[in-house]
TrEMBL record:
It holds the Pfam family DUF5710. It comes from the Bacteria. It comes from Phytomonospora endophytica. This is DUF5710 domain-containing protein. Residues 3-43 form the DUF5710 domain.
């Protein structure tokens, strides 16, 4: 049977299903069973993105570690800055090239997330996207251990960090403490966002919230 692929953001899946979209569990993707009807046209698939983004270093930020984003950079993540359909294209590339396995622990049975690896130029105060990596939920929780703490899951995150890396309890505690020290230092500054890795392939990037607005947004959404 002929089919046409669709780019359906997760938040719109029920709307798409109601007008005829179908889910392919093997490809992890929505499609139109025959042709893209007028009701489904809004989700007609955009061209696939390249398997490696321009300037991306897929060896950057290897392994599992606490990877805290400075508070002055909150809400500048890729998902917050691109249209939902572009995010779906990005997610499909990153999970697909990883064979739908966590690129840290190899887990395939968990829900998979796309995580950004950022390079921080402390001299120029530039936060540049250098890699997009496929992580399972437990590994992703470790990288954002501050958020895990807010959700009451810090102990679970540390336990997973130790299980994957082989760190002792003391080593894990020291690693987390060092990560927070770096976070506090970087959070004292305003950073310029560099998403050239995405804009160079035609992904539309919207300006993130202004630095002065991010603390208020965080208080409203995280705490």
């Amino acid at each position: 049977m002929a089919r046409e692929w669709l780019d359906v953001p997760y938040a719109e899946k029920d709307q798409a299903k109601a007008v005829g979209a179908r889910w392919d569990p093997r490809e992890k993707r929505w499609y139109a069973p025959d042709v893209v009807t007028p009701e489904l046209r809004r989700w007609a698939a955009l061209p696939d993105l390249p398997g490696t983004f321009p300037g991306e270093d897929r060896g950057f930020g290897a392994g599992l570690f606490v990877d805290l984003v400075p508070s002055s950079c909150w809400f500048t993540n890729v998902r917050s800055c691109v249209p939902q359909r572009d995010w779906e294209r990005i997610r499909r590339v990153v999970t697909g090239r990883a064979a739908r396995r966590c690129e840290v622990c190899g887990e395939a049975g968990q829900r998979l997330d796309v995580h950004e690896r950022w390079a921080y130029d402390d001299a120029r105060r530039v936060q540049a996207l250098r890699r997009l990596i496929c992580l399972c939920e437990p590994c992703h929780e470790v990288t954002h251990i501050g958020l895990a703490g807010i959700r009451g899951r810090a102990d679970a995150a540390v336990a997973h960090l130790r299980a994957v890396t082989g760190m002792s309890g003391a080593e894990a505690d020291a690693h987390v403490e060092d990560a927070f020290a770096v976070w506090r230092r970087r959070s004292a500054h305003t950073w310029t966002l560099d998403l050239g890795m995405l804009t160079d392939v035609g992904v539309t990037v919207a300006p993130p919230p202004k630095p002065g607005e991010r603390a208020t947004i965080a208080e409203q959404t995280l705490f």
